[in-house]
Design a protein that fits this description.
The chain is of the alpha/beta class and 297 residues long. It is built from ten helices and ten strands. The strands form three sheets. It has a six-stranded mixed sheet with strand order 4-3-5-10-6-9. The protein has a two-stranded antiparallel sheet with strand order 1-2. It has a two-stranded parallel sheet with strand order 7-8. Strand 1 and strand 2 form a beta hairpin.
């Protein structure tokens, strides 16, 4: 077995041409350098240095050894720097499940700040519904998920971070656009549409629950398009849909947004306490700090 310190001693002795000077530079006894190099030569079965009264110089075998040793130490140094950078969250990779728009709001602000502070960390985003995201978090297919609700998921850490108001998406010529804020009585006779993909099913259940309290069963169409195209479809008909506050920054011709009175959606971060990804932990820590500042404000 060759020890790392033996390699280091050989390189230092080569640089200084002397065991004594190498030992002084390393802050150890000359006898320790001489003994370790002698042990290494015994392991290799050849002399690495020619000793003389003025110091030492490399043999042919020693020259070969030092050339390879320096390359090995350089590669090791790169590895140490890479690992240390990951540990400090300077480098890394985070897989993030989302259930909210990135157009604006808390999540958009969080990612913008994180990107500024950790520009070398690569972020990958995956849309999906909360249950699927939590399952992926448990299996380490996702590092963290930002989803709606206040459920405490088993085997996961859950932090409530922010809330968004619920908005109705209306055609700009709809009569309800005359009101600045809507309530469920205003919406009880309207037709709605939702997407077949997240968050469409959740919006469907949300509408059923709210309007059932008024004794109404709403007519809800399912469209096989994403959220952005769904909102655009509102402009060409009189069918409405719901969205969260983060999406309303997106201005689409023929569309108006109106908030629903006293309706908010809570959002949380969900991750596994067994996930040791430093980059993810730094993201969650930043999210907690920003949420605390937001609540204080």
């Amino acid at each position: 077995m060759i020890e790392f310190r033996q390699i280091k001693y050989v390189i230092k002795a080569t640089e200084y041409g002397s065991f004594r000077k190498a030992a002084s530079a390393l802050g150890i006894q000359e006898s320790a350098v001489s003994r370790r190099i002698r042990d290494l030569e015994g392991t290799l079965g050849t002399s690495l240095f020619q000793r003389h009264s003025g110091g030492v110089f490399l043999t042919l075998a020693g020259q070969q050894f030092v050339r390879h040793a320096r390359k090995a130490l350089w590669q090791l140094s790169l590895g140490v720097k890479d690992v240390a950078a990951i540990g400090r969250s300077e480098d890394g990779f985070i897989k993030i499940g989302i259930f909210s728009s990135l157009a604006s709001g808390f999540l958009s602000d969080l990612l913008r700040v994180y990107e500024k502070e950790h520009s070398r960390v690569r972020l990958e985003f995956i849309d999906g519904d909360p249950a699927d995201h939590v399952s992926a978090v448990r299996q380490f297919h996702l590092d963290v998920a930002f989803i709606t609700g206040t459920t405490q998921w088993t085997d996961c850490t859950v932090d409530q971070l922010w809330s968004e108001r619920v908005f109705v998406v209306l055609p700009s010529n709809h009569q309800l656009c005359d009101k600045q804020e809507l309530n469920w009585d205003d919406l009880s006779g309207e037709q709605f549409m939702v997407s077949n993909v997240a968050p469409g099913p959740e919006i469907h259940d949300y509408l059923i629950q709210r309007l059932a309290d008024l004794g109404r069963h709403p007519e809800i169409q399912v469209q096989y398009v994403g959220r952005d195209n769904l909102i655009s479809l509102v402009a060409v008909g009189r069918t409405l849909t719901l969205t969260s506050e983060a999406t309303i920054v997106t201005q689409i011709p023929g569309i108006s947004y109106r908030p629903v009175q006293n309706e908010t959606l809570p959002f949380c971060a969900v991750w596994s306490p067994r996930n040791d990804n430093p980059a993810c932990r730094s993201l969650v820590s930043l999210a907690r700090s920003m949420a605390q500042i937001s609540r204080a404000g």
